[in-house]
User: Which sequence fits this backbone?
């Protein structure tokens, strides 16, 4: 009986030690922080994005871990397109120009439910 109790205690200790830390969900603050170096490109409507802009896009892409993250990013970008005069075509082409795929719908009329 003592062996079973010790084994169970060890199992519980191992579960606690190796429990994965929860991943924090993406917020609009995260999206805004990642995309702020891109504002000149996004509001100017063209050209090439800066390296700091592309670094932010890569960071944002790496943060998208779930469907909910993807929906949040979509909603944040959708709001920014409407509120900050962002050119939809520039926003839609940004990830590709930075060599990354984020697979998030872009635009004022984007369907963010997917």
Assistant:
């Amino acid at each position: 009986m003592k062996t079973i109790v010790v084994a169970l205690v060890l199992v519980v200790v191992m579960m606690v030690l190796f429990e994965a830390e929860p991943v924090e969900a993406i917020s609009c603050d995260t999206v805004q922080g990642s995309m702020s170096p891109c504002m000149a490109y996004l509001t100017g409507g063209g050209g090439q994005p800066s390296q700091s802009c592309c670094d932010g896009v890569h960071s944002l892409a790496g943060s998208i871990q779930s469907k909910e993250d993807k929906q949040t990013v979509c909603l944040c970008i959708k709001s920014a397109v409407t509120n900050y005069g962002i050119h939809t075509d520039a926003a839609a082409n940004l990830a590709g120009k930075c060599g990354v795929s984020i697979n998030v719908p872009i635009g004022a009329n984007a369907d963010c439910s997917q």
About this structure: Residues 67-83 form the longest helix (17 residues). DSSP finds six helices and no strands in the chain. The helical segments are 2-17, 28-35, 39-44, 51-63, 67-83, 88-97. The CA atoms of residues 39 and 86 lie 8 Å apart.
